[in-house]
Amino acid sequence: MTGTTAKITSNMSLPRGRKLELSRTLVMGVLNVTPDSFSDGGQYIDPQKALNRAMCMIEEGADIIDIGGESSRPGSAPVNADEEMRRTIPIIEAIRKKSNIPVSIDTTKADVARQAIEAGADIINDISALRFDDGMANVAADFDGPVTLMHMLGTPGTMQDNPHYDDCLAEITQFFSERLEFCDKSGIDRARIILDPGIGFGKRLEDNLNIIKNLGRFSGLGRPLMIGASRKSFIQMITGIKRDADKRIGGSLAAVFYAVRFGCNIIRVHDVAETVETIKVINAIENYSS
C-alpha cells in the first residue's frame, strides 16, 4: 500500500499543564454551532443542544471537541467576530464546566481565538493558516497550546471556483514550509504546529484522492498531521449517489482507514462513535500476531 509514513508520536503540550497524547490516532469531534454548515448546520444553534452533543461525543470516545461558529462550506458567507463569539464562547464555557477534554476553536479571527482561549479552549484550528487576520499570529505566539494550519486555495467563498494545481502535493508541501517559516519569524514554536492538507478546500476530486493516498509526502515536515474528510462531497463524486451529507458514513470511514494506515495523528469527524470503532478494529488487526 502506498503512502505509508513514520507517524509523529511525541506528545504536544496543552494549556494548564496537560498533554495531547499522539501515540495513537486521535478523534476530533466536529461541533458546528452555525445555521449553515454543509452537514450539521442549524442542528446545534441552541446552546443546550450543543452541550448535549459535545457530551455525547465525549461518551462516544472523542479525544478533542472542535467548535466552529462560522461555516466554511464552499460558497459560504463570512460572519463578524461578535456573532462568531456569541455562538461559540458560551459552549466552550459550558463544556469546560463539565469536562477537561481538549477543546479546539475553529476560527480565522484573532479576537475570537483570544476570547475562546480565555474561556478554556486548548487548540487554535485556523483554516487560513494564520493568513486571514494579521492579529492571529500574535494570539498564537502568546498562546501555549497547539495551532493547526490548514491549506486552502482562496477563501471559502471562492475556493471551489475551478481550483488548479500543477503538482498538488508539491504545492501543498511548499505552502506548509512557508507557513512554518512564518511561524518561526512570528515567535510560534514549531513544536506546537499541526498541519492539515485541507481535503475539499480548493481541491478537485483527484486532488483529494492524491492527498489521502500520499499523506506520507508530508512527513518530511516533521509535524503531526490532521485530516478532515468526513461526509465531504468528494465521497458523492466517487459513488455517483446523491445523498444527504450525514448519509456518507461508508465513504467517511473508508477515508479514515487510509488516514490511519498512512500515519495521520488526528481525524476530524462528525460520526465519532463509528470512527472510534473503526480505528480500534484497524489497530487490532495491525497489531495482531499469530
- SSE series: EEEHEHEHEHEHEHEHHEH
Per CATH, the class reads Alpha Beta
Strand content: 5-15%
> Count of DSSP helices?
9
Could you give the count of β-strands?
10
Brief descriptors of the model:
290 residues; alpha/beta; eight-stranded parallel sheet; 39% helix
Task: Describe the protein.
The chain has 290 residues and is α/β, with parallel strands linked by helices. It has a single domain (12-287), classed as Dihydropteroate synthase-like (TIM Barrel), CATH 3.20.20. It contains nine helices and ten strands. It has helices spanning 47-60, 81-98, 110-119, 136-142, 168-186, 205-213, 233-239, 249-261, 272-287; strands spanning 12-13, 19-20, 26-32, 64-68, 103-106, 123-126, 147-150, 193-196, 226-227, 266-269. The protein has an eight-stranded parallel β-sheet. The longest helix has 19 residues, at 168-186. It is globular, with a radius of gyration of 18 Å. The chain starts with 11 loop residues before the first strand and ends with a helix. The model has no long low-confidence stretch (mean pLDDT 93).
